Amino acid sequence: MKIYDIENFPNPLRVRIALAEKGATDNVEFIPVDVMNGEHRTAAFLAKNPQASVPVLELDDGTYISECSAIIEYIDTEFAGVPLTGTSPKERAIISMMQKRAELQVLDAVGTYFHHATDGLGPALETYQNKEWGIKQGEKARQGLVYFNQVLGNSQFVAGDKFSVADITLFAGLVFAGFAQITIPSELTHLIAWQENIAKRPSIAG
Known about the structure:
There is one protein chain. By secondary structure, the protein is an alpha+beta fold. It folds into two domains: 2-78, Glutaredoxin; 89-205, Glutathione S-transferase Yfyf (Class Pi), Chain A, domain 2 (Up-down Bundle). The chain is built from eight helices and four strands, in the order βαβαββαααααα. The chain has helices at residues 10-21, 43-46, 68-78, 89-117, 131-152, 165-179, 189-199, 202-205, and strands at 2-5, 29-32, 56-58, 64-66. The chain has a four-stranded mixed sheet, covered by helices on one side. Strand 1, helix 1 and strand 2 (29-32) form a beta-alpha-beta unit. Helix 4 (89-117) runs antiparallel to helix 5 (131-152) and helix 4 (89-117) packs parallel to helix 6. The radius of gyration is 17 Å and the shape is globular. The mean pLDDT is 97.
């Protein structure tokens, strides 16, 4: 297995945390993609992922899988260990729902803010920007922080009493938020405490 990514970017971070949680990091060869110089937009990379995004998983039979949710689902079922995507139909559905909310309300909203309302990755890569839309998505991200603070006031983890892919996605979203200078308001104590606890997990702390 190979994973094409760029270390410390938010979506690659999600996959790397999942691999570490499953104890499977050593089963993967990481291939760095020079995103800052546009390698993800070359014909060679687009043949692997037409969406021009990282990460991309390459299986031993030559199959390419992109989209973090799909990659993590494959990792979760391929390797032994505590399940990240649930086991029962109800558990899987709740985790999927909360993971999607973390993606839409925090991670993706922060990403849109970063790429549209700030300098982002610079003029060579940010070839189109809509600042008004970016600012609107920044507001959505801040509302998402409030929502998840409420969620975490009632449960230990994002999707209930077990760590899951939903926690991975929200954590990566908060890392990205910090990079984009979207701070967590001090009154969101449940979210702050959750972030501090998740950061201590061996899969993240190293």
